[in-house]
Amino acid sequence: MRDNGKGIEEERLTEIFKRFYREPEVADQDGVGIGLYLAREIVMKERGFIEVRSKTGKGTTFYVNLPAAQ
User: Fold this and answer.
1) Which residues have a Cβ under 8 Å from the Cβ of 35 and sit 6 or more positions away?
2) Quick count: other Cβ atoms within 10 Å of Cβ 60?
3) CA-CA distance, 28 to 43, in Å (whole number)?
4) Where are the alpha helices (DSSP H) in 1-70?
5) pLDDT tens digits, 35-47
6) How far apart are CA 20 and CA 16, in angstroms?
7) Are the beta carbons of 42 and 50 closer than 8 angstroms?
8) What are the residue ranges of helices labelled H in 17-60?
9) How far apart are CA 6 and CA 13, in angstroms?
10) HSE (CB half, 13 Å, CA atoms) of 21?
11) Rounded to an integer, what distance in angstroms lies between the CA atom of residue 48 and that of residue 66?
């Protein structure tokens, strides 16, 4: 999944998968900060992983990798 939004600052990339983490800039918007946490937990339980790449001001790309079904 890719977007062309504001991007995520490099020092925050390790924070975004933490439960209840929300970017400081969206504190006034609805949300609880569990979406990426839950996505990562589900993918990890299926023995996969999520990779994220982001450039501030350019957007973010998420890669979800799951093992092939056997």
Assistant:
1) none
2) 19
3) 29
4) 35-45
5) 999 999 999 999 9
6) 9
7) no
8) 35-45
9) 13
10) 13
11) 4
Q: pLDDT, tens digit, for every residue of 10-69?
A: 999 989 999 999 988 888 889 999 999 999 999 999 999 999 999 999 999 999 999 997
CA–CA separation, 12 and 1 (whole Å): 19
Listed in sequence order, the residues at least 6 apart from 44 whose beta carbon sits closer than 8 Å to its beta carbon are: none
Burial 14-35 (b: 16+ CB within 10 A, else e): eebbeeeeeeeeeeeeeeeeee
27 to 9, 24, 53, 61, 68: CA distances (angstroms): 16, 6, 23, 22, 38
Give the span between the Cα atoms of 57 and 39, in whole angstroms: 24
Contacts (Cβ under 8 Å, ≥6 apart) of 14:
none
* Residue in this structure with the two tokens 């996969």, named with its chain if needed: 48
The pLDDT value recorded for residue 26 is 84
